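Quick one, C-alpha cells below. Sequence please?
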C-alpha cells in the first residue's frame, strides 16, 4: 500500500501583522477569507502528465499538494499558497508560496534555503506589506523580477504597486483579473522557440533535451492573438515544467508587439498587452489553494512530482497546477 502524506496549508492572521486584508471581490471559486487551516492529503501515487488525451481519473486523496512540516520550516504563522493565472473556471494556475511574516528568514541564505525546501517555482517574502516590498526566490536563485509572484502578491495584499528588486511594478484590479505593468528588460533571459502547431508544443517531453530556459509556443489563432505555450526551466532544481510564466509571456509580448491570450501548461491563462517603451501589462486570475472539502471524485490530479530533500523530509510539489475537472 502506498504511503499517504498528510500536508496542510496554514493561513492564519499573523499577530501584529501590518497589512491590508484583500477587499476587492472574490476569487473564481469563492471569497478569499478562507478558513485558517485547510488540511489536504496527497497520495504518493501520482500519474504522469498526458497531453494526448483526457486527464486520468483521480484516486481519492489526490488533491492539490500544499505545505508539509510548516512549523519545522518556520512559516506556520504566515504562508499563503496561491494559484496564479487560473483559467475561467478557477482551474490550473502556477502555485506560489507567499511568506507574509519573514522575520524568521531575515537574510538571503535562510530565504534561499526555505525556497529550496518548499520547492515551488517561486516563493515570495513580503518585507513591507504596505509598500509591497518583496523578495523572490526559485529553489536555487534569487530573482529581481518574476511575473506570477508579483501578480499573486498584488492580489493577496490588494496592492496598487509591488516593489521587487528590479523596480516599482504598478498593479491594478479589474473584476476577476489582477494586472501588473513591467518592463521587458526586467525579465530574466528566456529562449522563446516557436513551433508550427499547438500539437507540436503538446507533444514535447518534460523537459525537452537541451539546457537553459525554454519557452515553447505556437499560434492557436494568430489573428486573434491566441497562443499555446509550455515552459521548461531546465536548471536542475527539480522544477521540471513551469505551469504559468509571466516573465516569459512578457518577453513574447514585447517581441511580437501585440496583445496575447496565452494558454500555458495544462490550461493556465495569461493575458498581456504591450505599451510604449518596452512596457507590458500582464494579467490573470488568482485563487487560494483548494480546500480539503472539494469533492475528489470531480477532480483530476495535478502533474505533481514529489522528491525527498536531504534528511528525508518530503519536499513540496513544484509548479503545482490546480486540478482539472473530468468531463
Amino acid at each position: 500500500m502506498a504511503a499517504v502524506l498528510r500536508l496542510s496549508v496554514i493561513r492564519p492572521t499573523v499577530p501584529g501583522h501590518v497589512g491590508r486584508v484583500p477587499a476587492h471581490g472574490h476569487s473564481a471559486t469563492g471569497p478569499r477569507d478562507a478558513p485558517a487551516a485547510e488540511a489536504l492529503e496527497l497520495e504518493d501515487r501520482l500519474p504522469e502528465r498526458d497531453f494526448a488525451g483526457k486527464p486520468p481519473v483521480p484516486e481519492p486523496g489526490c488533491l492539490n499538494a500544499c505545505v508539509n512540516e510548516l512549523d519545522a520550516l518556520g512559516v506556520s504563522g504566515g504562508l499563503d499558497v496561491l494559484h496564479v493565472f487560473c483559467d475561467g473556471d478557477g482551474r490550473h494556475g502556477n502555485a506560489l508560496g507567499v511568506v507574509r511574516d519573514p522575520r524568521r528568514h531575515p537574510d538571503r541564505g535562510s530565504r534561499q534555503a526555505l525556497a529550496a525546501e518548499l520547492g515551488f517555482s517561486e516563493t515570495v517574502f513580503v518585507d513591507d506589506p504596505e509598500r509591497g516590498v518583496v523578495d523572490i526566490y526559485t529553489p536555487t536563485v534569487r530573482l529581481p523580477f518574476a511575473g506570477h509572484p508579483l501578480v499573486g502578491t498584488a492580489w493577496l495584499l490588494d496592492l496598487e504597486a509591488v516593489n521587487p528588486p528590479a523596480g516599482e511594478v504598478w498593479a491594478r484590479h479589474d473584476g476577476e483579473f489582477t494586472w501588473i505593468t513591467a518592463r521587458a528588460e526586467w525579465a530574466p533571459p528566456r529562449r522563446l522557440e516557436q513551433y508550427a502547431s499547438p500539437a507540436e508544443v503538446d507533444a514535447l517531453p518534460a523537459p525537452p533535451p537541451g539546457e537553459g530556459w525554454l519557452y515553447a509556443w505556437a499560434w492557436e489563432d494568430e489573428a486573434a492573438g491566441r497562443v499555446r505555450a509550455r515552459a521548461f526551466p531546465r536548471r536542475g532544481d527539480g522544477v521540471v515544467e513551469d505551469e504559468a510564466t509571466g516573465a516569459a509571456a512578457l518577453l513574447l509580448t514585447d517581441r511580437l508587439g501585440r496583445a496575447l491570450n496565452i494558454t500555458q501548461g495544462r490550461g493556465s491563462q495569461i493575458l498581456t498587452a504591450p505599451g510604449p517603451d518596452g512596457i507590458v501589462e500582464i494579467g490573470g486570475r488568482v485563487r487560494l489553494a483548494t480546500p480539503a472539502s472539494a469533492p475528489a471524485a470531480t477532480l483530476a490530479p495535478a502533474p505533481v512530482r514529489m522528491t525527498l530533500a536531504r534528511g528525508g523530509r518530503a519536499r513540496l510539489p513544484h509548479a503545482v497546477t490546480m486540478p482539472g475537472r473530468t468531463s
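The two ends are 29 Å apart (CA to CA). Confidence is low (pLDDT under 50) at residues 1-68, 290-327.
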